[in-house]
Amino acid sequence: MTLQQLKYVVTVAETGNISEAARKLYISQPSMTNAIKELEEEMQLLIFRRTNKGVMVTNEGDVFLAYARQVLEQASLLENKFLGSTVQKPKFSVSCQHYSFAVNAFVDVIREFDADAYDFTLRETQTHEIIEDVSRMKSEIGILYFSSKNEEILTKLLKQNDLYYEEIFTAKPHVFIAKDHPLAEKEAVSLEDLEEYPYLSFEQGEYNSFYFSEEILSTLDHKKNIKVRDRATLFNLVIGLHGYTVSSGVISKELNGEQIIAKPLLVDACMRIVAITQKDKGLSRYGTAYLEAIKRHIAQ
Predict the structure, then answer these.
(1) Which in 48, 114, 205, 216 has the greatest CB count within 10 A?
(2) What is the predicted pLDDT for the residue at 87?
């Protein structure tokens, strides 16, 4: 296995096409194809599945590529330090549930390092995909929550995937409602207060059980249910339908505007927001800065 072979497979994955990757790296297509084949044989795995439309990364290949990218980045840092060569674009990825503080912290990291070029990814996605992304090293960090209802199942799943978690903060449940909602003047609201209003939650795909729900108290019955996939749609429905969702209570006026407010929910429960990472694997400087940024936003 060589660094050159790793560059080949990473470039093919980025372009989705061996011919395009070969042109980009100024190498003939047969030479690149042979180099990738030799690497797959050496590693005893299939990195790419060839199709009529190009190539697709296999599940095994996905894991291999995550390690390959890290090796190339470290090699680039060594070259820059000792040879004065140009550093590759830094890469950093986070997968998270739909939290504004997670987005704010991501912005802080980009501003802090202020690189001329970078390749960062923020995925607001489903709970199961967050765990999968970190286990496959698509993301360095995952952000999700534990409750008394889901903690046993989620910690078991993390252990199975050899992942570690660190608690960032504990929050009492709040409801997000529009500032002109009929309940907006109350200091706190009860489940009975909310009974007639639409309940909004994030859809979890094939893992749509309460263990993977983003919303605490998801086991309760609601007369009116609406499931969505993204935060903008959810907040539009909160405003347009006088709906509500349940979350940590940490809200960003910069990201979500002045129309959404948080009110304490009168229930005996709590949410533990945690960061999940690869076990026994240190964080990059971007990962460390990201968790520090989250803690700053929570403190504020």
Answers:
(1) 216
(2) 54
Please, what sign has the CA dihedral across residues 187, 193, 196, 201?
Answer: positive
In this structure, the strands spanning 199-202 and 271-278 are: unpaired
CATH superfamily of 91-162+272-299: Periplasmic binding protein-like II (3.40.190.10)
CATH entry, 171-271, from 3.40.190.10, 3.40.50.300, 3.90.650.10, 1.20.58.340: 3.40.190.10
Q: What whole-number distance in Å separates Cα of residue 298 and Cα of residue 143?
A: 14
Let me know: does 94 contact 35? Beta carbons within 8 Å: no
Q: Which of 295, 270, 272, 291 is CA-nearest to residue 282?
A: 291
Angle at 232 between CA 269 and CA 169, to 5 degrees: 30
- CATH number of the structural domain 3-79: 1.10.10.10
Report, in angstroms and rounded to the nearest whole number, the Rg of the chain calculated over CA atoms: 22
Alpha-carbon span 7 to 148, nearest angstrom: 45
Distance CA 203, CA 118 (A): 31
DSSP state of 149: T
Non-local (6+) Cβ contacts of 14 within 8 A are 21
pLDDT reported for residue 86: 57
As to burial, measured by CB atoms within 10 angstroms (0-12 exposed, 13-18 middle, 19+ buried), residue 81 is exposed
Cα–Cα distance for residue pair 184/281, rounded to 1 Å = 45
pTM of the model: 0.74
For the chain of 300 residues, list the mean pLDDT of each consecutive stretch of 10.
Answer: 90 85 89 91 90 81 84 77 65 92 94 83 94 87 93 93 93 94 96 95 83 85 91 93 92 78 93 92 89 89
